[in-house]
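Field: COMPLEX_INPUT
Field: COMPONENT_COUNT = two
Field: RESIDUE_TOTAL = 601
Field: MODE = joint
Values follow.
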Amino acid sequence: MKPARVRAVTRRVLQQFRHDRRTLALLFVVPLVVLGLLGYLLRGGGGGHTVVGVVNLDQGQLGGRIANALVASKRVDASRLSEADARQRLSDGRIAGYILLPTDLTAKATSGGAISPEVHLEGSQPGPSADVLQALNQALIAALAGAGPHLSPKIFYLHGGSGLDTLDYFGPAFVGLIVFFLVFVVTSVAFLRERSQGTLERLMASPLRRGEIVLGYMLGFGLVALVQGLLVLLFALYVLRIHNEGNVLLVFLIEALLAIGAVNLGIFLSMFARTEFQAVQFIPIAIVPQFLLSGVLFPIHQEPVPLQYLSNVLPLTYAVYGLRDVMLKGAGLGSAGLQLDLGVAVVFAAAMVVVASATLRRRIA
Amino acid sequence: MTGDAVAIEGVTKSFGSLRALDGVSLRVHPGEVYGLLGPNGSGKTTLIRMLVGLVLPETGSIEVLGTRMPDIGVLGRIGYMTQQAALYPDLSVEENVRFFGAVNDAEAGLEEALRFVELWDRRSSTVINLSGGMRQRLSLACAIVHKPALLLLDEPTVGVDPQLRLQLWERFRAMTNTGTSIVVSSHVMDEAERCDRLGLILFGKLLAEGSADELRRKAGTDSLEQAFLALSGTGR
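Field: COMPLEX_OUTPUT
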């Protein structure tokens, strides 16, 4: 293993990127466009207002004032309903939730106690839930004119629910996925081209060792992937403002391990393709199942049991767990779960390096 | 160990039911141009690939520059120009030569190689923008940048116009004058005339060996082409 030769391969890979600005732009712009679209989709609020019901059972005047403020609110499309009607509409999915102002609302407010409006939410979609809560908050402030009594609303979710919004949940997984996916595609096509244009045969007829080729590729594409990963991460944190409780460096580390694994998976799979067309067809084979089964979209414990076994052996699963643990739960290196996730990512990256080097044949026959 | 640049002894190779090489033995002396002459599919490329260890013989032995192949250690002293101009199309002329130099442990020699093939002035051009002939010359520059002792040329002048072919052969001859041995495969007869010695290959067999004059004399014909046809007729 000669560093100068590895450096030559790496430099050449980077020079190719410099000449192929379109691919480079694709690598840096596509993830931001995709993430941006996802962010807008999940957080954009939509054109239609969230439809909610207001059930006023209060025997005093305060309930009426809050209800009026809610109906007047621009944040939600609120209308007065009876309790039975509201409950029916919520379970039919016609409203995102309803706010119930209890009979003793005014009484409690005047006696100085805490008032407890009930908020019944559909709960499976975080966006509308947030709208309802914000609208109630604003209505209370308006109705109570600031100097109000202590407030303790009771929140009921119909389907579980969460304090975080959808983007906060999907964001960490997508940060990893996008890097993995794009690096895989670019490497497999680049390496396939090396084969089809005959330059690989030339390299095999030179003193360059297989490990030096794989390492050189890994460093060249790895460097580009790291810049991409960094860009994606900064975009997610500072433009989309995805919730992050953990150490950014840990997120970056997981991204980097994923990128290394993707480069070598790309080299490995390109051995089995003869044309770029075929290489692209490895995407549905190698990437889509991982995407579906790694818990990005569907929690793994909700999958059918046979698929859970499969999910648990896919490396991407652990990366997704790891990214979520760090960003949503603030897990650090001391966390046993994260140690497992990082361990699997390291083993995956290392295994891919070995497999890629091993399948690279010097002999044509 | 022999003093020869190449020593091939009784080499056999099959691909499935196809007998690609059948008991071929030949030697290439230092500083000579040895031409492998034969039609497409006769086994020329397979033989050349064996010289760089890309294909292993089933029987027989191959020695290159005194080293029994396959051996990665000797590859840095061999220059290999493949049939198609195997280059990185999105890199510049200079970047291509520098890269192939670096993987052969030669950091210097860039300018010399590019001047040799008269591409120094085009060194910053991207390969995509080069003509076919220029690519062929660049491919040669990439094969000689590390000053190999043995140069393997697999049909180097396919699709090259006569003028450039003449130029390339002047280059090859200039290299042998500095001690480089060259093995070149071809199916073009006027090219064969330029080789010091020729090996006629047909269906994986070495039918005849010698200079162009010797082959003509042996076959009793006026042209090399007729000699080739006559000799291949007897070889069946």
